[in-house]
TrEMBL record:
Catalysed reaction equations from the record: (S)-ureidoglycolate = urea + glyoxylate
Protein biosynthesis is among the record's keywords: no
Keywords for the protein's UniProt record, in alphabetical order: Lyase, Purine metabolism
SUPFAM superfamilies in UniProt: RmlC-like cupins
Full protein name: Ureidoglycolate lyase
GO biological process, one term: allantoin catabolic process
Subunit note: Homodimer.
NCBIfam families in the cross-refs: PRK03606.2-3, PRK13395.1
Record carries keyword Lyase: yes
Organism: Phaeovulum vinaykumarii
One term of GO molecular function: ureidoglycolate lyase activity
InterPro entries linked to this entry: RmlC_Cupin_sf, UAH_cupin, Ureidogly_lyase, Ureidoglycolate_lyase_dom_sf
Pfam family name, one: Ureidogly_lyase
Length: 165
């Protein structure tokens, strides 16, 4: 709708994303060379957190691909654990995050990943749901399995319209 907030997506960088989570990528020199020199290990690159009473779960998501401009009308967060999305299609996807302001999302930011980049959302980070930008929208997802209310959702009214970088 006319007058709704507009957000221009940014290319994802580890520095810009740091307050919200981690960027998983084979960027720069590896931390270790393993497997008889045939493999670079980018070691322990995500701040994983499954909280008390939880454990790590590895799932596969197949999400419907979207296109930019994209209308975001919902943000959510997981107060009990982190959530990592690793694309199995090697394609860019859209990541929308927001700071917390008194228990509600603040001004959101949108990022488009580079091919092959994955993300890990810190526990409690407000985010849009998984938003592939290309088919097949297949991702490995590492997040918390356990008891407790680990999903808070907030409807955005008006919604935010996200434009390509
Ligand atoms: N609900 C669920 O499993 N997925 C969302 O948390 C998401 O961030 O896509
Ligand atoms: Ni989530």
């Amino acid at each position: 709708m006319k007058g709704d907030p507009i957000l221009r997506a940014e290319p994802l960088t580890a520095a810009a994303f740091a307050p919200f989570g981690d960027v998983l990528a084979a960027d720069g020199p590896p931390d270790r060379i393993i497997n008889q020199g045939n493999c670079g290990r980018f070691h322990d690159r995500a701040r994983l957190d499954f909280g008390p009473g939880g454990r790590a779960g590895l799932s596969i998501f197949e999400a419907r691909p979207r296109a930019l401009p994209y209308t975001c009308d919902l943000l959510e967060r997981h107060p009990l654990g982190s959530q990592a999305f690793l694309p199995m299609n090697g394609k860019p996807f859209l990541v929308i995050v927001a700071p917390d302001c008194g228990g509600r999302p603040g001004v959101p930011r949108a990022f488009v990943t580079a091919p092959g980049q994955g993300i890990n959302l810190l526990r409690g980070t407000w985010h849009g749901v998984l938003t592939p930008l290309a088919a097949p929208g297949i991702f490995a997802v590492l997040d918390r399995i356990g008891e407790g209310a680990n999903l808070e959702e907030v409807r955005l009214d008006p919604p935010v319209h996200v434009l390509a970088p």
